[in-house]
Design a protein that fits this description.
Keywords: Lyase, Pyridoxal phosphate, Transferase. The protein is built from 16 helices and 17 strands. By secondary structure, it is an alpha/beta fold. Bound molecules: 4'-deoxy-4'-aminopyridoxal-5'-phosphate (PMP).
């Protein structure tokens, strides 16, 4: 079967007109960041051209209109992830910012020395290091649930880690390395059975599936706007109202207080404003809302089918190339990512070779050093798809891979250095 989505939406994305020498851009690094459709670019320009002013503070019409746009964007996000209340949606700078906020507020409030936090062995550093640092400063212990052979967290192993000392769990919804989907709904149910709240890193899930935070029963759910065709610098922390409303301020400053005197304790405003100190990225929130509108207009069913088709085509193409080895089992439950290695050739050299053909892919450890180590590889080459990718692009990758040769990195293999810096 074929999908016509890729070709039909390409004109919506101005950057796809770029060329590198004789080659058109084949952008397959969407898990790092997705390109932006004109609808999102227009939303940013329109905001700055017609509405720009600071929000929540000005008793004039322009400021009130900007405030309305910001709150309308919050409502769009609420609807997109099926949160119950708009005030359960906190705007952050991204997933990393949201998880750091949680570690510093929620995490700190529930942990004491000897307690445990459970994460999985597939976490991105952004859902690993904030918890690890919190453990170091509180005397708590970080428990890492190992990932199974298919690159997925097995429910039994996760459940086995939920002993009475565990105060919270933080898990990826979808792996940014392999695209494997964890059984988060079941993991959350298991954790709740022990009274343990769960933070979900949804950075790679939200671009590929309609996420329903209430169906998942997630206590907290974090994602970035830029991976779902929205602007950089805007992201979301969803939290259940009863949990979120108990969080102490993270950063303090403008926009977080009811009033300040030098004598009395500071009285903070309710969430979400309490957790959004300083001038927020209003244009970004408007752009993110436009991005959700864009995907919903295409239709999630269409997007999912296109995703599955591209993953299937990529698996087939890669299997036909000598020395290529796919990591994990992307066809089992595809989520827009296929990771592979070319035996005997460093992933950086494969990436550089593909760049010579105009193909942009990520190669290396993908900010998931611990996960990559479990495969015994120095890194992988990652194809990650978006709505504008086509089967013709995958065929171009296949053809380019037939001529890849060992290069600089293959010869050097300075393992320590690249593991440390990706
Ligand atoms: N978690 C996962 C699973 C990711 O893929 C990423 C982005 N690579 C992040 C967290 C961090 O997102 P951001 O850089 O937008 O904060």
């Amino acid at each position: 079967s074929t999908s016509t989505l890729g070709e039909s939406v390409r004109p919506d994305f101005p950057i796809l007109e770029r060329r590198f020498g004789p080659h058109p851009l084949v952008y397959l690094d969407n898990a790092a960041t997705a390109q932006k459709p004109r609808a999102v670019l227009d939303a940013l320009v329109d905001y700055y051209s017609g509405l720009n002013s600071n929000i929540g503070r000005g008793y004039y019409r322009l400021s009130m209109a900007a405030t309305d746009a910001y709150e309308a964007a919050r409502e769009t996000v609420r609807r997109a992830i099926n949160a119950e209340h708009a005030d359960e949606v906190v705007f952050t700078a991204g997933t990393t910012a949201a998880i750091n906020l949680l570690a510093d507020t929620f995490g700190r409030s529930v942990l004491t020395a000897g307690d445990r936090i459970v994460v999985t062995g597939m976490e991105h550093n952004s859902n690993m290091l904030p918890w690890r640092r919190l453990c170091e400063t509180t005397g708590a212990e970080l428990v890492v649930v190992p990932v199974g052979a298919a690159g997925r967290v097995e429910l039994e192993r996760f459940t086995a880690a939920l002993d009475p000392g565990v105060r919270l769990a933080a898990v990826a919804h979808v792996s940014n390395v392999l695209g494997t989907v964890n059984p988060v709904r079941e993991m959350i149910r298991a954790a709740h059975g022990h009274g343990i709240p769960v933070v979900v890193d949804g950075a790679q899930a939200v671009p590929h599936r309609p996420v329903d935070v209430r169906d998942l029963d997630a206590d907290f759910y974090c994602f970035s706007g830029h991976k779902i065709y929205g602007p950089m610098g805007i992201g979301v922390l969803y939290g259940k109202r009863e949990l979120l409303s108990r969080l102490a301020p993270y950063q303090v400053g403008g926009g977080t207080v009811k009033g300040v005197t030098l004598e009395e304790p500071v009285a903070y405003v309710p969430v979400p404003a309490r957790l959004e100190a300083g001038t927020p990225h209003v244009a970004g929130s408007v752009g993110l809302a436009a991005a959700f509108d864009y995907v919903e207009d295409l239709g999630w069913d269409v997007v999912r089918r296109h995703d599955d088709l591209l993953v299937g085509a990529a698996v087939e193409a890669l299997e036909s190339v000598a020395r290529v080895r796919i990591i994990g089992d992307p066809a089992a439950e595809p989520s827009g990512i296929v990771s592979f290695v070319v035996d005997g050739i460093h992933p950086y050299d494969v990436g550089g070779h593909l760049d010579g053909h105009g193909v942009a892919v990520r190669s290396g450890v993908h900010c998931a050093n611990v996960f990559i180590d479990t495969f015994g590889e120095v890194g992988t080459v990652r194809l990650s798809f978006a709505v504008y990718n086509t089967e013709a692009e995958i065929d171009l990758v296949r053809r380019a891979l037939t001529t890849v040769r060992p290069g600089f990195w293959t010869a050097e293999y300075p393992t320590e250095r690249f593991l440390a810096t990706d």
